[in-house]
């Protein structure tokens, strides 16, 4: 990403003015007095700077190939361009009213006034698909449902994902799967892996299989290398579900007929629901015939809950398969990329892990992860530079005022955390990978704004599996760095923004055993 910050066609004075306008957000109904005081200064939504907006198409033309200069698979670059052209609040209208928010104070203000049931406008075609299948689903699932129905689902399943006790209970199983993976790499005797992401996908399917369903997909077994195997098709269906979501959210043709992208989504969903249903039936039989105590998977805990609806469970299982594999594989890829290119950091992680695990084969416990402070700071730093999404989306459920502009209910807000996290006004030497900036007590510690980097979102709608995902990444990286010296063999790694940020090239790594 470009290091030189230019102000595009706007003068520095414009940005200064922009910064002086109150950054507070007032909800119109709750702060009537303040709003009245400022009434004459409140500006109309249409006056928020942004690309030219035409009747009917809004700013959609910007995304049309050969006509517009926006590439939907480079949203990070567009966000950067918009910030340079228009400043820290940018209006767009690709079908709906949309405002990009860059300043962490403003991001905080947006989240602080969020509704009791925070809403997102995403996964609309998936919601449509699921609602047309009442024999399988009750709802659109956690990712796509809003309002009271979302909260009903979230409160049903949340405890199983978030309670520290249940999360820690998965350390042993997860570590066992990762140890097998390390052994598989060693048995393969290949030091240069052309695209390590393929293996990380398989590994993360195995991990989520065990943690969520107590099910092995055996992704690394010879018989699973066939294109038609269950593990390969599940990984493809998870990707097939995720990759078209944003284009379908922006488009509308699928509402009239089933476009190829809609069909891809529908086929992928259907595959994931078949896999989930078969696993569920197997577990139900097991639960009837055997003692249920030994199954501490998420599914096991869902089934132990009284009055839980099986259709809600199927929806949750499909959401887990969709949300777990790509996210953890991409974020681990970026973390390995940064660690591989920053030799000193890699050696610090190694010495920390070698102290905690004097023997390669020692078990990793929840305590090991707590004590791996430098490793956890490295993951945090990688997520600052390469979060899984460019920012967090919210659908406004009431009018608000932001930076002096009236923003109406129904507007989509996108907090631009990825770009903001790379700006020098918020982080020192922002493009440098420096885990120490997160470590209190380090001379390089920085007091970073708590709303600058939000890789798992914020508030009651944040990632339901945050603790699990962080735990998995920690164990994967701890095991790999403990065992291998890792070198990056590719060019500078960028992102392809497909709802979640995928590495834009092969994850080319050399892993050389430290024991040789
Ligand atoms: C490093 C890995 C991951 C990252 C960075 C990540 C990030 C996110 C983000 C940014 C959101 C949106 C939060 C918001 O709107 O405030 C989210 C939501 C969600 N994530 Fe994750 N996630 C990861 C892994 C996982 C895993 C492993 C699972 C499942 C086991 C999962 C399940 C979900 C679900 C179901 C939601 C929707 C929650 C809701 O709307 O209530 N995620 N995640």
UniProtKB/TrEMBL annotation:
Its cofactor is heme. InterPro entries: CYP11_CYP27_families (IPR050479), Cyt_P450 (IPR001128), Cyt_P450_CS (IPR017972), Cyt_P450_E_grp-I (IPR002401), Cyt_P450_sf (IPR036396). The keyword Metal-binding applies. One of its GO terms (molecular function) is oxidoreductase activity, acting on paired donors, with incorporation or reduction of molecular oxygen. This is Cytochrome P450 302a1. CDD domains: CYP24A1-like (cd11054). Heme binds at residue 463. SUPFAM superfamilies: Cytochrome P450 (SSF48264). It holds the Pfam family p450. Keywords: Heme, Iron, Metal-binding, Monooxygenase, Oxidoreductase. Belongs to the cytochrome P450 family.
């Amino acid at each position: 990403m470009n290091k030189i910050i230019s102000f595009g066609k706007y003068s520095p004075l414009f940005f200064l003015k922009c910064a002086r306008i109150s950054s507070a957000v007032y909800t119109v109904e709750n702060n009537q007095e303040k709003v009245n005081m400022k009434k004459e200064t409140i500006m109309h939504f249409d006056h928020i700077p942004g690309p030219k907006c035409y009747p009917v198409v809004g700013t959609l033309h910007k995304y049309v190939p050969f006509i517009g200069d926006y590439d939907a698979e480079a949203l990070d670059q567009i966000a950067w361009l918009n910030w340079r052209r228009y400043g820290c609040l940018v209006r767009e209208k690709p079908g709906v009213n949309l405002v990009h928010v860059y300043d962490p104070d403003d991001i905080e203000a947006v989240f602080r006034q969020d509704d009791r049931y925070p809403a997102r406008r995403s996964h609309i075609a998936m919601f449509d698909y699921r609602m047309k299948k009442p024999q399988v689903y009750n709802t659109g699932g956690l990712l796509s449902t809003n309002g009271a129905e979302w909260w009903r689902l979230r409160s049903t399943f949340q405890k199983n994902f978030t309670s520290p006790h249940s999360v820690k209970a998965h350390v042993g199983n997860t570590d066992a799967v990762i140890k097998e993976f390390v052994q598989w790499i060693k048995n393969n005797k290949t030091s240069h892996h052309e695209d390590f992401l393929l293996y990380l996908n398989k590994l993360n399917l195995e991990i989520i299989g065990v943690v969520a369903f107590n099910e092995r997909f055996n992704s690394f077994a010879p018989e699973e290398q066939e294109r038609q195997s269950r593990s390969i098709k599940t990984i493809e269906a998870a990707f097939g579900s995720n990759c078209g979501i944003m284009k379908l959210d922006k488009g509308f043709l699928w509402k009239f007929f089933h476009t190829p992208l809609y069909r891809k989504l529908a086929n992928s969903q259907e595959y994931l629901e078949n896999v989930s249903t078969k696993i569920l039936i197997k577990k139900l039989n097991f639960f009837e015939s055997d003692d249920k105590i030994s199954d501490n998977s998420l599914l096991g805990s869902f089934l132990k809950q009284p009055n839980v609806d099986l259709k809600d469970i199927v929806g949750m299982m499909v959401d887990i398969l969709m949300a777990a594999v790509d996210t953890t594989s991409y974020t681990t890829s970026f973390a390995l990329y940064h660690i591989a290119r920053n030799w000193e950091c890699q050696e610090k992680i190694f010495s920390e892990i070698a102290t905690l695990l004097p023997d390669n084969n020692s078990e990793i416990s929840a305590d090991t992860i707590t004590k791996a402070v430098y490793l956890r700071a490295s993951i945090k730093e990688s997520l600052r530079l390469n979060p899984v999404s460019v920012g967090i989306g919210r659908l406004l459920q009431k009018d608000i005022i932001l930076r002096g502009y009236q923003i109406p209910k129904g507007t989509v807000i996108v907090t631009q955390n990825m770009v903001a996290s790379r700006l020098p006004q918020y982080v020192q030497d922002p493009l440098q990978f420096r885990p120490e900036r997160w470590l209190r007590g380090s001379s390089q510690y920085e007091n970073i704004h708590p709303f600058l980097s939000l890789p798992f979102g914020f508030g009651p709608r944040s990632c339901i599996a945050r603790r699990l995902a962080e735990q998995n990444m920690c164990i994967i990286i701890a095991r790999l760095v403990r065992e291998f010296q890792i070198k990056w063999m590719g060019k500078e790694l960028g992102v392809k923004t497909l709802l979640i940020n995928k590495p834009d090239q092969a994850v080319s790594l050399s892993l050389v055993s430290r024991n040789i």
